């Protein structure tokens, strides 16, 4: 039986339960300029294992058991640093300085217009040509995980302000991975960070039979180039309705036919509630693997892997076809700097950008 959305969320650090996080690291190669990159493995005694590289802060692997105890890797990615550099598709990375799309790469802040890189057609996507996914982060092992830090300098990808960013990955009870983001600036700027993991809880095949529930009564409609129109619309009586769990493939063609979406879902959903809240549940019926997401963010971007096209080979030589994985990106809304009715992504000196997302994996029978 799939667990209900109403079950109470509790986050207990492993040390509170007397459990132990095992942390190991090894070299992962060098960037073209000779910078050394490492990969870190976090694991517990319940066959839960997460691997993270400080190149782009990317989660390269999440291994978790099914209802029969069989362990599989449930995220897409590569086995080598060279592949992450040659074929960037945001697999598992930290996306920023401003995740998601900004229309025409333009925004105005305190009367000054900024022109960002237009790296997604006419629009700006995930921080530009060299966003946070393509930089080497400083890494420090902690008792329960890994702390990454990066200084994004004033003018990087045309963003204003020196932005100091910290992202902490920590493992907790019940096979949970907590991601804690924080940032400060010395000049007014915009910030929107997320993790861009592609999930496939079956460990292979497509994700169309995965059952998805989203704690969202509303979504933000988009134009043909996936830029929000500024409206906030009810999901009821549309293919966007995931308020009750349903297979992702059930309405995916209707979504394309009715609303002109690009081959599937790539949309921001407005989460119900405030503070730390239940955001999403993803369940794979055959394996029993279930992912529940809680977050402090106001939105979650559901992307069904529409632009995967069979041209990339991932771990184990697997070819990533369309719908090979899906993303559930907790974040502020796309193009937020250009919509006054959206939650603001502006960060000013003296303020701290902060949000938490928790990924909880289980295998109910």
Provide tags for this entry.
6-stranded antiparallel beta sheet; 2 helices; 365 residues; Beta-galactosidase, Chain A, domain 5; 9-stranded antiparallel beta sheet; mainly beta; disordered N terminus
Task: Describe how the helices and strands are arranged.
Elements: E1 22-30, E2 36-43, E3 49-53, E4 59-65, E5 71-73, H1 81-86, E6 94-95, E7 101-102, E8 106-109, E9 112-115, E10 124-125, E11 138-141, E12 145-152, E13 163-172, E14 176-185, E15 189-190, E16 194-195, E17 198-199, E18 211-214, E19 218-219, E20 233-234, E21 246-247, H2 252-259, E22 266-270, E23 277-283, E24 290-295, E25 299-303, E26 326-331, E27 346-347, E28 353-362
Antiparallel strand pairs: 1-2, 2-3, 3-4, 4-5, 6-16, 7-10, 8-9, 11-12, 12-13, 13-14, 14-28, 15-27, 17-26, 18-21, 18-23, 19-20, 19-22, 22-25, 23-24, 24-28, 25-26
């Amino acid at each position: 039986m799939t667990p209900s959305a109403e079950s109470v969320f509790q986050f207990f650090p492993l040390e509170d339960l007397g459990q132990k996080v095992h942390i190991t690291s090894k070299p992962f190669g060098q960037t073209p300029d000779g910078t050394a990159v490492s990969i870190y493995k976090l694991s517990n005694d319940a066959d839960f294992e997460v691997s993270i590289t400080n190149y782009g802060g990317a989660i390269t692997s999440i291994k978790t058991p099914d209802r029969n105890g069989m362990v599989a890797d449930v995220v897409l990615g590569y086995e080598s640093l060279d592949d992450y550099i040659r074929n960037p598709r945001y697999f598992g990375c930290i996306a920023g300085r401003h995740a998601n799309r900004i229309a025409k790469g333009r925004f105005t802040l305190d009367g000054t217009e900024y022109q960002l890189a237009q790296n997604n057609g006419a629009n700006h996507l995930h921080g530009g040509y060299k966003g946070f996914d393509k930089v080497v982060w400083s890494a420090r092992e902690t008792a329960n995980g890994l702390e990454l830090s990066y200084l994004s300098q004033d003018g990087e990808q045309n963003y204003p302000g020196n932005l100091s960013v910290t992202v902490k990955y920590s493992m907790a009870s019940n096979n949970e991975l907590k991601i804690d983001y924080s940032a400060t600036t010395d000049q007014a700027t915009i910030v929107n960070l997320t993790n861009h993991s592609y999930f496939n809880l079956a460990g292979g095949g497509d994700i169309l039979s995965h059952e998805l529930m989203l704690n969202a009564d509303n979504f933000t409609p988009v134009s043909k180039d996936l830029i929000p129109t500024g409206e906030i619309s009810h999901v009821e009586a549309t293919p966007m309705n995931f308020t009750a769990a349903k297979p992702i493939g059930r309405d995916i063609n209707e979504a394309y036919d009715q609303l002109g979406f690009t081959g599937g879902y790539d949309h921001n959903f407005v989460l119900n509630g405030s503070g730390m809240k239940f955001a999403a549940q993803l369940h794979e019926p055959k394996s029993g693997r279930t992912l529940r997401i809680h977050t402090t963010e106001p939105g979650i971007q559901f992307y069904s892997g529409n632009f995967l096209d069979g041209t990339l080979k991932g771990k184990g030589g697997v070819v990533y076809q369309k719908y090979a994985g899906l993303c559930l990106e907790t974040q502020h809304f796309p193009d937020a700097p250009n919509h006054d009715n959206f939650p603001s992504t502006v960060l000013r000196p003296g303020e701290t950008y902060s949000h938490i997302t928790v990924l909880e994996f289980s295998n109910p029978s």
